[in-house]
Specification:
Layout: E1 5-13, H1 19-29, E2 33-44, E3 49-54, H2 57-68, E4 75-78, H3 84-96, E5 102-104, H4 122-129, E6 135-136, H5 140-147, H6 155-166, E7 172-176, E8 184-190, E9 195-201, H7 211-224, H8 229-245
Parallel strand pairs: 1-2, 1-4, 4-5, 5-6, 6-7
Antiparallel strand pairs: 2-3, 7-8, 8-9
Helix pairs in contact: 1-7, 2-3, 3-4, 5-6, 7-8
Length: about 270
């Protein structure tokens, strides 16, 4: 029996904590073979992003075709896309290869506060990519930016924004409440039939670099292994919570350090 395969389409993080590197670590930790399509190179560390170089759109398309023409891709995670032109070729490539289990993490700003998506590209993301997604995984600031609304203040407003995003085309929305204060970190999964609440105790740490990338890639790993969406989200939430809880053991860098992707093994 062949190994399950997940593909990440995202930017590279030179410090290894987020982006392509976090995705491949998550896939490996969860027993899935990882392939990658790199959309942008970043010069970054735990403190800041000092440079971004987008990959030419035609070469992004070439990577997509190379992977899908040979590998049996079970699920796709999409992260940093950098520009409207890259968004367009990614959407076209996924349609060309009839990809279905697509997890879209609408990456806009790094943990350090540096912008990773051109503002003018947001409209393209909404129009051409959201409708392809099985699930979209925005945090509270990302959901607010996509909808041009104030950041949700409570779970009622979180659900409302998730419903508004789902109306734009994706099958489901996981709106992540990690930016809200309180003893719990609560995420809400909203699809056409139900809302499921996923809660975990909030962990006091400054080392949470790559949490969004890690969660979305863990969901893709679950989907590649044949899990249904609620179970894939639940397993991903458990995995990233444990990775955050173990993050301080790594002691990487002097800024916002990465989560511990291999907490079960090291």
């Amino acid at each position: 029996m062949s190994a399950p395969v997940a593909l990440t389409i995202a930017g590279s993080d030179s410090s290894g904590g987020a982006g392509i590197q976090a995705d491949l670590k998550s896939f490996a930790a969860l027993g899935v073979y990882g392939a990658s399509v790199i959309t942008a190179l970043t010069a970054q560390n735990t403190k800041s992003v000092t440079g971004i170089q987008a990959v030419p759109p035609n070469f992004v398309a070439a990577q997509i075709d190379a992977v899908f023409s040979d590998l049996a891709v079970g699920a796709v995670k999409i992260g940093m896309l950098a520009s409207a032109e890259i968004i367009a070729v990614v959407a076209a490539g996924l349609e060309r290869w009839r990809a279905s289990k697509i997890v879209l993490d609408p990456v806009m700003v790094a943990t350090s506060g540096d912008r990773l998506l051109q503002p003018k590209a947001i409209d393209t993301l909404l129009r051409v990519l959201l409708p392809h997604a099985l699930i979209v995984t925005p945090n509270l600031p990302e959901a607010a930016a996509l909808l041009d609304r104030p950041t949700a203040r409570d779970e009622t407003e979180m659900r409302d924004q998730a419903e508004r995003l789902r109306a734009l085309g994706p099958k489901a929305v996981l709106i992540k409440g990690g930016h809200r204060p309180g003893p719990e970190s609560v995420d809400l999964l909203v699809d056409e039939t139900q809302m499921i609440r996923y809660a975990a105790d909030r962990i006091a740490t400054e080392n949470a670099h790559g949490t969004g990338c890690t969660l979305s890639s863990a969901i893709a790993a679950g989907l590649a292994k044949g899990r249904d969406l609620p179970d894939a989200v639940r397993e991903a939430k458990d995995y990233v919570t444990a990775a955050i809880a173990a993050a301080d053991r790594l002691q990487i860098g002097s800024g916002h350090g990465p989560v511990h992707h291999f907490h079960q093994w090291w």
